[in-house]
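Much of what follows relies on a compact textual record of a protein's fold. Each token is a code from a learned vocabulary of local backbone shapes. The record below shows the convention in full.
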Amino acid sequence: MAILIDPPAWPAHGTLWSHLISDAGYDELHAFARRLGLPRRSFDLDHYDVPASLYEAAVAQSARPVTAKDVVHALRGSGLRVRQAERETVAPLRRRQYLRAEWSGLGALVGIGRTRQAENDWHRLGEHLLTRWNEPHRSYHDERHLEDVLLALDHLATRGERLSPATLLAAWFHDAVYTGAAGDDAGSDELASAHLAAGSLAALSIDAALTSQVGEFIVATTPAREVRDPAAPLAHLLDADLSIFASSPHRYQQYSLAVRAEYAHVADPDFAAGRSRILSGYLQQPAIYRTATAQQLWERRARENVSAEFEGLLQVVTAEGAGSGVRRAAEAE
């Protein structure tokens, strides 16, 4: 078994990147990446993208320097290569593997008993949550969002943030109930998710204080809810929940279209007006993110993405206002 890395030669985000692979299996690769301090979101189905700044460290930790061709040949020879045509099929499988592994690890972290019954109960709860996250009416608030939140928390951890079990549990439950309620019912999904967490965790004899904290964290994720000076565990969750704002332009467009799809029943002008008010609230804050680490990682790109969407929505609102004026003038005649 060997970990291989090619020279940093692929330009992106102002630096050059290498490919880090294993010629034997992904478990070995993930373990090496953790030791190197790479966030899990650097994993791209069959390899990790490694910035040039970490190339020498990877080699120092026993990664074998090879050529780019050697990397491709090794992936092919091991059967681990994911071809471009396979990516769309493989991505959701990798996502589900990651989520199940994270849930299993979380069980150990919160002290789930080692009896077969306790392990089975924890497993069933995880599968139940994944079923909820994959309900057919969801477009954005699905298991990809759950994965994004967990990956963002992992990214914060690689930068030295200490994650609380309450934060991780709240991440799993925070949109477990999702109906897309708005208006007078806004916040009902978060309350229902908190209620689900309380009942589910109590049934597994999870510490009552921890369970209560999880519920409080979930309610705090209600959009536009004012949360002043949260302690680090809640700040981590709030920052991770909004990490999508700092995604690539392509991923951000996917996100904004998915949000629109969840409100397909709302007319364009009304959606644009409501959505622009929410985004404006974030832009008016001194910082979108609560922790210094998240601000360093995501603030600039998040403001660029949110500002661009806000400007587009504002054009819809302005056009509708002008159109309404024309219609009123015509009716007056």
In short: The beta strands are 3-5, 10-12, 15-22, 48-51, 64-65. Residues 85 and 91 are 11 Å apart (CA to CA).
